[in-house]
Amino acid sequence: MPELPEVETVRRGLAPAMENAVIERLELKRKDLRFPFPEGFAAVTEGRRIKSLGRRAKYLLIDLEDDLTIIAHLGMSGSFRIEADGRSDAPGAFALPRGKDEKHDHVIFHLNGAGGPLRVIYNDPRRFGFMMLSPRRALETLAAFRDLGPEPLGNALDAATLAARFAGKKQPLKAALLDQRNIAGLGNIYVCEALWRAGLSPFSAAGELVSPTGRPRASLGHLVEAIRAVIAEAITAGGSTLRDHRQADGTLGYFQHNFAVYDRAGEPCRHAGCKGTIARAVQGGRSTFYCATCQTG
Predict the structure, then answer these.
(1) Residue 97 burial (10 A CB sphere; 0-12, 13-18, 19+)
(2) pLDDT, tens digit, for every residue of 78-120?
(3) For the chain, what is the total number of helices (H) and then of strands (E)?
């Protein structure tokens, strides 16, 4: 499953090609992905201009004119590629390498942009992704959005916000961070990395980071800083690109080479002066990687 940095990398890669382009035709190669496509999906989007590309948590938001938004989720293996129909070297249009077999091309956006015609193709071998339609003004009322917490890189996320959500909770800290109601878009990889950077145990109670008066302890402030740093670095590096996922230009990201704990069980801890070894445990059905020697907070 792609994590937030992967989705943000895809958004940034698609935006130059898709923003301000007109959807001349939406070609659906099948009736469904994980769920059936919205009724009249192709007809209602035809002729509309794409105003902007956004992201909320792990959802890609394609905002069209007239207050309509396409909500896309990549599932486990979904990816996009851009083809500029014979003008791959022309300024303002570009052809991006295909990362998947064409038999898994399920949705094709036939666009007319500033540089001329192009196609944006959604490919999904496992078909766990999906696309929905919603009025933009109604997004926050949808089940997928209404309970989402603040974005990891947004101004709404700070130690005080998390203190209000963690106060009195005996829930393990890692589970609290994966709860999308607390922070939107955080996934297993980057939670492990952030906890390691902050020197906090994934097994400690979330409420321990909050004082009896409800104020955030210093360790909670360090955790927020670690979350922001690890997400920002992953986006800059192009995401982790584990398994099927690639950047929007088809190239692999390289942040996985900088993982400090994730998938490094049995290797030495990289904290300066720490002689511990990275361990693996299972929490809530997911692998947790941590250093028991220095993650004691």
Answers:
(1) exposed
(2) 888 888 865 432 222 222 333 457 899 999 999 999 889 999 9
(3) 6, 10
Taken in order 186, 245, 71, 88, is the CA torsion positive or negative?
A: positive
Cα 74 to Cα 1: distance, rounded to the nearest angstrom:
8
The whole-number pLDDT of residue 248 equals 55
SS3 43: helix
| CATH architecture, range 159-291 | Orthogonal Bundle (1.10)
Torsion of CA 139, 140, 141, 142, to 10 degrees: 60
How far is it, in rounded angstroms, from Cα 226 to Cα 295?
Answer: 13
Q: What is the pLDDT of residue 255?
A: 55
- Give the residue from 227, 156, 141, 243 showing the smallest Cα distance to 190: 227
Active site members: 2-3, 58, 286
pLDDT value of residue 241: 47
Locate the domains of the chain by residue range. 4-141, 159-291
Q: What is the pTM of this model?
A: 0.85
CATH number of 4-141: 3.20.190.10
Q: Rounded to 10 degrees, what is the CA torsion of 166, 168, 170, 172? A: 20
Same fold, 4-141 and 159-291: no
Total number of residues shown for the chain:
297
